[in-house]
Amino acid sequence: MLSYRHAFHAGNFADVLKHSVLTLVLEYMTRKEKGFTYIDSHSGAGMYKLSDDYAQKTGEYKDGIAKLINQELPEPLTRYVELITELNQGDKLDIYPGSPGVAKSLLRRQDTAHLFELHSTDITLLNDFCQRWRKAHVKQSDGYQGVLGLLPPPSRRGVVLIDPPYELKEDYPKAVETIIKGCKKFATGTYILWYPVVKRALVDNMITQFQQSNVKNLLQVEFCLAADTEEYGMTGTGLFIVNPPWQLKSQLEQILPYLTDQLGSAETQFTLAQLIEE
Predict the structure, then answer these.
(1) CA angle (118, 83, 46) in 5-degree steps
(2) Omega before 152 within 30 of 0, i.e. cis
(3) Confidence of residue 233 (pLDDT cuts 50, 70, 90)
(4) Which phi and psi angles does 153 have, rounded to 5°?
(5) Annotated catalytic residue: which of 15, 40, 111, 163?
(6) Which residues pair with 226 in a beta bridge?
């Protein structure tokens, strides 16, 4: 279908959760001198202008990242928010990074990025964004196959982000299956799978799919602004994380109550669970 454009949603509450976790994971990986590989299955444009018509039409960033700027933050959120403010001029919030933008800010010379995107407009923007990023490899091809084709990475150190638009229901089981297959090829990698909470049954099926696999050490985090509903629209967001950094769970225990206070309402709920042990 390829109609999804993340520019409408850049910087919203789902991005805040996803990119704060991605920041923590990539920061952890940089603590060792040895390089690692970052693989992004659905990269988008790389960077988004919040002043563009897309972002202004929905204004979702105003109830997301905008509420964290110039605030007292729990320590695990500080680097993520610093990253955003460093990309902008002073207190003005004009641009917001996609996952490639977050990665570009954190990866070092010895680290390599592989970025996949199919959308004809976004691939052009992504290529422009990565023009001077020498260790980034951009491909207009299927990200699911792209991930599997790169595993295991030469360094035997890697982070895989799978972040499909979920335009098709098939994306839910396909994304999980990609991680299951990836773990068979590269069991020690860290895998981050983002998902929207639109229909609870779709998320429950993903959990069952993981639990019936050989995947080990699976953490789930979910942040929902409203209760589940059968009506159209996303009420929450979540991540499945395979082989998370050892301190990530405790960091999320600080992040989630803060996000509830800053971005949530009386209906907001979050969960954090070790679904599968090591």
Answers:
(1) 10
(2) yes
(3) confident
(4) -70, 155
(5) 163
(6) none
The token duo for 277 is: 């042990």
What is the pLDDT, as a whole number, of residue 250?
Answer: 98
pTM attached to this predicted model: 0.95
217: left (phi over 0), alpha (psi -120 to 50) or beta: left
Residue 55 has a pLDDT of 62
Count of beta carbons in the 10 Å neighbourhood of residue 200: 14
Our answer to whether residue 163 is catalytic in this structure is yes
Q: What is the DSSP string of 109-150?
A: TT-EEEEE---HHHHHHHHHHTTT-TTEEEE-S-HHHHHHHT
In the block, residue with structure tokens 């917001």: 96
pLDDT for residue 19 is more than 90: yes
Domain 6-276 has CATH 3.20.20.105: no
CA–CA–CA angle 96, 256, 76 (5° rounding): 65
Q: CA-based diameter of the chain, in Å? A: 49
Q: Residue 5 pLDDT > 70, yes or no?
A: no
Cβ-contact 218, 47 below 8 angstroms: no
Structure token digits, residue 150: 């790169």
